[in-house]
Write a structure and sequence with these properties.
Blueprint: H1 2-5, H2 19-54, H3 73-84, H4 91-105, H5 112-156, H6 170-176, H7 180-185
Helix pairs in contact: 2-3, 2-4, 4-5
Length: about 200
């Protein structure tokens, strides 16, 4: 009988979902849970208001429907599209930030999706800023390494327009006591360069 149902065979189909699908599902689950929680808190506030107003508690008698509010299909698709753009490493931070915003504001159930959208956009902006910073850092490091290699290349190459192997300076001439006739041959505003092979 086990052969009929293929219980002994290993499962050849493994469900591999893309990371963006996992992030989207996780974030949308968090949104739906926060919406249900906001609806429950709103009901509790309404019951408390009625209890204070009438002085009678009928909460044990009332049965509430599972969920009465849901976002539109277009809004859901737009939010899923934003969720798919979130990098998996930011998923936890987005959830924590969303919970923090909901706790701070105690929104009505209709407002939860707009808070969720603002948290997603905030996370996307942060991701873009960090990516730009990384890109600029890579460009800066590439330019620095290139300029360092050019500096080492420049330090090895020396130009010697006069064909002498030593660099002459004014101070050397003064120290050696070279006369003004020899100094007049050379224009000191031009530096003397020498060939790297002569080093």
């Amino acid at each position: 009988m086990a052969s009929w149902f293929s219980w002994g065979e290993p499962c050849h189909r493994t469900l591999q979902r893309s990371p963006s699908d996992v992030v989207t599902d996780t974030l949308m689950l968090e949104l739906s849970w926060q919406m249900k929680e906001a609806e429950r808190l709103q009901r509790e506030r309404d019951n408390e208001y009625r209890r204070i107003k009438t002085g009678v508690d009928y909460s044990w008698l009332v049965s509430y429907p599972r969920s009465t509010y849901d976002i539109t299909a277009g809004e859901r698709l737009a939010l899923e599209d934003l969720c798919a753009k979130i990098h998996p490493s930011y998923c936890g931070a987005v959830i924590l930030r969303f919970r923090q915003v909901v706790m701070e504001n105690e929104p009505e159930v209709q407002e939860v999706s707009s808070f969720f959208r603002s948290v997603l956009l905030e996370a996307l902006d942060k991701m873009k800023e960090e990516e730009d910073a990384k890109r600029l850092s890579r460009q800066w490091n590439n330019k620095r390494s290139m300029s360092a290699s050019l500096m080492t290349f420049k330090s090895r190459v020396r130009i010697n327009p006069f064909g002498t192997s030593e660099v002459k300076t004014v101070s050397e001439d003064v120290e050696r006591g070279v006369g003004s006739a020899e100094r007049a041959k050379r224009v000191w505003s031009m530096p003397e360069f020498r060939n790297g092979k002569a080093m």
